[in-house]
Design brief:
The chain is mainly α. It has 23 helices and no strands. It is globular.
Length: 443
């Protein structure tokens, strides 16, 4: 057995041990253990992805194996899953999750109907706000709640199996898109074996994988000139998470007017069917209030935002997030216009590049950047020669040091250590000095 194979087997064993340790023995407040295990996983993953001993078939089975290690674990880095199943449970009771916050339901005369375990588990922030999860996610939560008869651990396993299946589907459609781009099929491993993807989507049950699966299907259908199906998948992606809304006009840019009409019409009609059962005047107002929270209330791990906020403190003497929040939506719309209309998105490569830089710019100016948000630019980067998002999936794990036993506080030094390497690599990759880096990632 040659040396490279031995190292590869060693990396697989390290992965199995670290995923088992993270999933079954670690807590979010154990910062040193978290960072060290993430570092070991990331280094092992990079070796497995780069070595010639491992092909795309091996990547598939290794990735599935790593995911199955977490099958019977309880999410340990996020409490969002309690809210997922709360939304599912109240829908079985006939309540619209967009019309009532958990606090409102628990203060009602029917409070004995609702699960105290789910309510307590989700935390105060979620308890006081209306649901932000779009309808496709809500359907999934409701079906799992019904199938598990309200048993929390069964719901966790059910949702995890769905996300594993979504990732496997994404693996294959991503591989087909790489073939169309004449890039190595193995490059899908940058997503499929990435520790952040496995821990956040499978371990902690976030829905980005499902959203990205629908989005990639939409892109693939557009490459096959099946615009009506592409519109349905695009609407499903928006119905899982709202992020694909950013990319609609990037994807239709190079198409004929007739195709654009059919694509947008398919998205519109499908969205009406998806959102229709939840629509009401109260729902519309509450959902807008919820979306606004990401612009003018929530704060976590922002980069440019934190610099602006620091300047605001010097000038105004208080947190200026409310002022910033009034302008941020217009900046976002401006970014969408630049990358959708002003950029020439006439090839699949250029479309992925525009989507990559649009979502990156959005995250750079956001007030809130949870680690799993970085998975979207990571996937788009797979279909280009840019790897700054790959580096970001490693450095963003430093943000978990913000969680203490009783409070959330991000040290400015942590932000510096997380974002400086990412910005530097981004600058290098878009400059003429990036030839060596690009040659490395092409191999």
């Amino acid at each position: 057995m040659n040396r490279n194979k031995l190292i590869s087997y060693g990396c697989i064993i390290i992965g199995l041990i670290c995923y088992a340790y993270q999933g079954h023995f670690i807590e979010r407040s154990s910062h040193l253990e978290l960072i060290l295990s993430f570092a070991l996983l990331f280094l092992s993953f990079c070796w497995l992805q780069k070595t010639k001993e491992i092909g795309w078939k091996e990547i598939l089975w290794i990735g599935i194996g790593f995911r199955l290690i977490l099958l019977f674990s309880t999410p340990w880095l996020s409490q969002d899953f309690y809210r997922f199943f709360w939304d599912g449970e109240i829908q079985l009771l006939g309540f619209n999750p967009y019309e009532f916050s958990p606090n409102e339901l628990l203060s009602s005369d029917q409070k004995s109907l609702f699960s105290k375990t789910l309510y307590d588990g989700m935390g105060g922030l979620s308890q006081s706000n209306y649901s932000n999860y779009p309808p496709v996610s809500q359907w999934l939560f409701t079906v799992l709640s019904f199938a598990s008869n309200g048993e929390l651990f069964s719901m966790i396993i059910g949702l995890r199996l769905v996300h594993i299946a979504a990732d496997v589907g994404l693996f294959f459609v991503g591989k087909e898109l790489l073939k169309k781009l004449k890039l190595p099929e193995k490059n899908i491993g940058w997503y499929f074996l990435n520790p952040l993807v496995i821990i956040e989507l499978i371990g902690n049950l976030h829905g980005e994988g499902l959203m990205l699966l629908f989005l990639l299907f939409a892109v693939f259908m557009l490459t096959e000139n099946r615009v009506l199906l592409a519109g349905i998948f695009m609407a499903m992606g928006v119905g899982a998470k709202l992020i694909p809304l950013f990319f609609i006009f990037i994807l239709i840019n190079p198409h004929k007017w007739k195709d654009r009409f059919y694509f947008l019409g398919s998205i519109g009609l499908s969205s009406l069917l998806i959102w229709g059962p939840y629509l009401s005047v109260l729902m519309g107002g509450n959902y807008w209030v919820t979306i606004r929270l990401w612009f003018d209330t929530f704060e976590f791990n922002g980069s440019i935002y934190n610099l602006i906020r620091s300047v605001g403190y010097q000038i105004k003497g208080y947190n200026v997030i409310k002022i910033i929040g009034k302008f941020t939506p217009f900046v976002v719309m401006g970014l969408v216009f630049v990358f959708s209309v002003l950029k020439k998105n006439d090839t699949l490569t250029r479309r992925f590049k525009s989507m990559l830089f649009l979502i990156t710019a959005y995250l750079f100016i956001s007030t809130t950047v949870h680690p799993w948000y970085v998975i979207t630019p990571l996937l788009f980067g797979v279909f280009t020669n840019y790897r700054f998002a790959l580096l970001w999936t490693a450095t963003v794990t430093l943000s978990y040091t913000s969680y203490g036993m009783h409070e959330v506080y991000t040290d400015p030094l942590i932000l510096f250590l997380e974002y400086l390497p990412v910005y530097l690599l981004l600058i290098l990759e878009v400059s003429d000095k990036a030839n060596r880096i690009k040659a490395f990632v092409r191999s």
